[in-house]
Amino acid sequence: MRIDVVTIFPAFFDVLEVSLLGRARDAGILDVRVHDLRDFTHDRHRTVDDTPYGGGAGMVMKPEPWGQALDAIAADATEPLRFVFPSPAGAVFTQAAARSWAASGEHLVFGCGRYEGIDERVFSYAATLGEVSLTSIGDYVLNGGEVAAMAMIEAVGRLIPGVVGNPESLIEESHEDGLLEYPSFTKPAAWRGYDVPDVLLSGHHGRVADWRREQQIERTRARRPDLLPD
Ligand code: JFT
Asked: What is the bridge-based pairing of β-strands 60-61 and 49-50?
């Protein structure tokens, strides 16, 4: 899978090298390329922002560098493009979106803005080159799109076959079955006065499975009732 990132802070993405995705990249399964938006400017100060039309606080990202960056990426794309712009005004990113993008065969392009946001016409222009998604990672406020893009890249990347070692662990995890995960324990069986639940030491696979499902439902009811059907 090919992923491009456009940002004024390319160094943010250096951690991709050392994370889970680094090995997938070495194996040729994931090809992530990071571009500095300022490389697509032409003035001495490599300007990417300007004051907002209509007034108001802060600065807005100028459309011209974005247009040049998106054109350069589109020019050598070999798969259908999806432009993902992290945005506090976007639809909330879900595991369903991660699954859909991972399975789509699309070339993902993350446009990471800063300041008050990106000139709205950039999204209209991107829509002439591919699909466009304005996506938020949740209802809290960040200073720009980089951290959100990193989260989405990890969520999508780990669903690409070969990126995560054991495909079973993908299915078992939180959200893949609509419930929170069951609690996990490892050795020792007794630690600082806390014991591992007896059922997990019993060797009764059916009872273990029933207990885990019960735990999933109870935790989901207590912490995330919004995930349960009425
Ligand atoms: C914040 C963001 C996400 C996501 C993109 C761009 C500029 C700063 C900002 C903050 C509040 C209002 C602009 C961004 C996010 C999230 C994403 C940008 N800012 N206006 N904040 N919180 N969950 N995804 Cl471009």
From this structure: antiparallel
